[in-house]
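Input record (one chain):
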Amino acid sequence: MDPAVESSQHAGEPAQDSISLRQLFIIFLRRWRLFSIVWASTVALTAVYSLTSTRLYRPQATLEIRPETPLITSDPNEAAALAGRTLWENYYRTQESILTSPTLLQAALRALPEAVRRSYETAVDPVKVLSRQVQIEKTRSSFIMAVGFIDRDPEKATQIVNTLVSLYQDDANKRLQETKSGAAELLSKEALPAIRGQVADADKALQKFLEDGQFIDPEEQYKALLESRRTITTRITQIRLKAIQVRSELDTLQGYAADGITGIFNPAFHSTKALELLWTQLETSEADLARTRKELKDDHPAVIEHKDQVRRVEEKIRSAIQGTLKSLGLDIIAVEREERAAFEEQRRVEQEMATSAKRAQQFKRLDADLTAAREVYNSYLKKHGETSATSGTRLASVRVVDHATVPLTPYKPNVPMNLSIGAILGLVMGVAGVLVSEHLDDRVRSPKEIEVFIKLPVLAVIPKLEKSSDEDKPFMLGDQSSLVEFEAFRVLRAELTTRLEGVQGPKMIAVVSALHSEGKSTVTVNLAKALAMEGRKVLIFDADMRRPSMQPSYGAPEAPGLERLLAGEVTVEQALAPSKLPGVDLLGMKKGTNHAGEIVSSARFEEVFSEVRKRYDYVIVDSTPVNQVAESALIARRADTIVMVVREKQTSRGAALAAARRLLGMGGRVAGAVLNCAHPGRGEYGYGYYGYYGYAYRSYGYGEGKKA
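The corresponding structure, as predicted from the sequence alone:
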């Protein structure tokens, strides 16, 4: 098949699960009466309720209630001020509770006139009845409170509100004065004397501490000791360096004392005056000995004398070194003693530093205690002065902004607001009713629904054919080609022949439906008749092998039938026989079988299908319901195009959509849908069914109709 022609056979993908605006519009057109009834009923009930309800009035007085602030300002970072701020939020709720307290309400009842009070005294609990009518509204992010009262009598409600607010303000002023007077007395008699005693005790403790330390500042003492430790540390370092130097000199001279040569170049050797002179004499004597040896022999008396002189000088040097070594040893002992004394001094200073640090810490603590006691005393002293100064004043944080006035309009019912709510609620309920009704009943009612919901083009709209015969039997229109109903099949014929122009050779059309009893066999019969009227060779292939209807209704009694052809008992030529439709042959089973699924998948069925196709111009396949049997889609996908029959007010959109998806999913080429059993007055497609350019409308079985 030509790809362009093949693509033209596809109606497109079925509709997605999401609902588009166009689908919603179609649903509304179907259910607008239900929507209107629900909406109008809701609005009407709301109006009746609003007009028949008892009228209640709500006068209200506006109060400003803010936490009490001190007249004498103190440090905002003061501990008492910070603690007070955290309680301001609870203050507002406290005043709200006071306004509705039984004590205040009882006082308000006693203050009301006799006539008003009598209306509440008849109740079992008058205070409880009164409290139910009081309403308090808070304005967020402000200190404004609205006190309202609901009652049928606006004047009585106004009088009660003003009385309640007045008593509340008087009670608040009274409680403020009592609280401040009691607080001032408590501060002067108990709190201030006790705090003064704490200040005196802290001062005595600090003075005693200073006396024990002879009024020496612990911090200055600690600094002096720290400097002393630094000096001692420096001194210890110097002593250690001196000890190292003395030991070095001692080691050097001991080496010289051993061999006379090792320590002669040490600076300590030359720093000793006696050794330095003896070394000079030794050098002179050795020089004289050397000259004498050059001139005289070793046994000469002069040489011997010089040798004795050198020996005597060396002995003096050794004696001097021994004395020096002894002196250096004494020096080392002295350095070690000095080092030990320095370490003892360092330990003593460090102990005094530790003691001084403890005293300094104790001094800071005592001083901090004294400072804190003085600050608390000063704070309470300020509070006492403030409380004493304001004990006779009225409460400035509670004032009446607006007194209650007699309302002119009722608080309830609010007719405009109720009607608005009723309209909105009716709209919501109407939409919900439409959606629920649509969910419970989604039967196709118009060609437009097929296009919008199932996404298939409508090839023809066939009116309901009135008949008195068996409903399960395919119904064929009479021989009058001028019948109005038959014009729909001419439209269907034109649609299909046009769409199949690109198909070369014989053409096969499969007629299917989603479920049974939707009229596919009737469409098959009349479509075959319409094609045969143009002189084409047409075959009806009854593929509904479970419940065959074509062969029993329109087949020749002597025809062998499809079952014998599939069994190989007869040939194709013998099985094909003319039907009761002019120019139309028929091939189908006479009796149903339960093995239709296996027969369709057999090679023999495929051979028969191919063979009959070659012998006719058009083969119309009357298939089985797609959603109920397995072989329907397998048969339909072999056809060049598929026509799906949808019965008005019977086929559901869900079933039709499932069938279309199944056919397309298995590679079927769906040309479109036929709306069967349509209302005869529908004029959305074709010419309408009341008249065609002067032709009379005829309902089969009822004779001539009236002119259009």
